[in-house]
Write a structure and sequence with these properties.
By secondary structure, the protein is an all-alpha fold. It has one domain. Helices cover about 80% and strands about 0% of the residues. The protein is built from 13 helices and no strands. It starts with a helix and ends with a helix.
């Protein structure tokens, strides 16, 4: 197996299991969990940077002004994504996190068209319309809007777009994204503990180990994803993306969540959109392969 495909699959598998981990921290504030997650992610990535002698690249990044707009865009979008994801899991909205990542490839196509002026195939256009129809139908028929799913989806899609522009080792990239928010995280943790809304008095014994674990379960799949996405064919990565939300969907249903009618409508429209998206993806790759063969034959 291609090592990049392995990295991509492993990152999706870990992400698929993450709802079970975040449920262990449901008793403390999602913002407190987010702050802890940021600090420990930065710490772990810095250790890996030292281990792999990547300090020169980190120092070079500090003076590479061309990269910073993309880095800051990635930092803001991933912080919003992490926070919303943790809130959704711990507050009983696991199914919305599943929906978010089912919708993600469709939104990435939309971002590509608007931000990078990529041409949309007719199947891609239909898939976008179908996904939007599912969201609008749920809102107009039942008055329910999957705002958590859309926030998670759009923030992750924007993050993915920024990562395509960042020319850094995965450890360096994730470290910068995390460490940029560390000062705010430390201040929030101090404030939380001072006002008795932190983890002290809530976590006991082995539960304190969950806090440093937030860094591991965050940084490891992020670095795997960053490393894998650079060398995985779009046809393969497009399919791999659905491994994680499928696991989250099963976990959500097994933990007692109900697939309500508006949410089911949105899911069905999204799944049809995904089928069209994958069909269009394979058609595009097939056409590119045929064109390449024709060029070689003419030579």
């Amino acid at each position: 197996m291609n090592i990049y495909i392995f990295y991509t699959l492993l990152s999706q598998f870990i992400w698929g299991l993450l709802p079970l981990f975040w449920l262990l921290l449901h008793q403390i504030s999602p913002l407190y969990t987010l702050a802890t997650r940021i600090i420990w992610s930065a710490a772990l990535c810095f250790v890996l940077i030292l281990q792999k002698n990547l300090l020169p690249e980190l120092k070079h990044t500090l003076v590479d002004k061309a990269q910073w707009p993309y880095i800051m865009g990635a930092c803001i979008s991933i912080t919003l994504n992490w926070g919303t994801f943790i809130y959704a899991i711990t507050q009983g909205f696991i199914l919305q996190t599943s929906l978010a990542y089912f919708m993600n490839p469709i939104v990435v196509i939309l971002f590509g068209a608007f931000l990078f002026h990529e041409k949309l195939e007719w199947l891609q256009r239909i898939s976008i319309i179908l996904a939007a129809t599912g969201v609008l139908a749920a809102f107009f028929l039942y008055g329910q809007f999957p705002y958590l799913a859309l926030t998670i989806c759009f923030s992750w899609s924007f993050y993915s777009m920024m990562k395509k522009k960042i020319r850094l080792e995965s450890q360096v990239s994730v470290f910068i994204e995390s460490v940029s928010m560390v000062p705010f995280s430390i201040l929030f943790i101090i404030y939380s503990e001072y006002t008795t809304i932190g983890a002290y008095g809530i976590l006991h014994g082995w539960e304190w180990l969950l806090l440093p674990m937030t860094g591991i379960v965050t940084a490891v799949p992020m670095m795997l994803f960053t490393a894998g996405v650079k060398g995985t064919p779009f046809t393969v990565s497009g399919i791999c993306m659905y491994f994680s939300p499928s696991m989250a969907l099963i976990i959500g249903l097994c933990t007692g969540e109900t697939l309500t009618t508006p949410l089911l409508i949105t899911f069905i429209c999204t799944w049809i959109a995904i089928a069209l998206y994958l069909l269009g993806l394979f058609h595009t790759m097939h056409r590119m392969r045929n064109n390449a063969i024709k060029r070689v034959t003419k030579m």
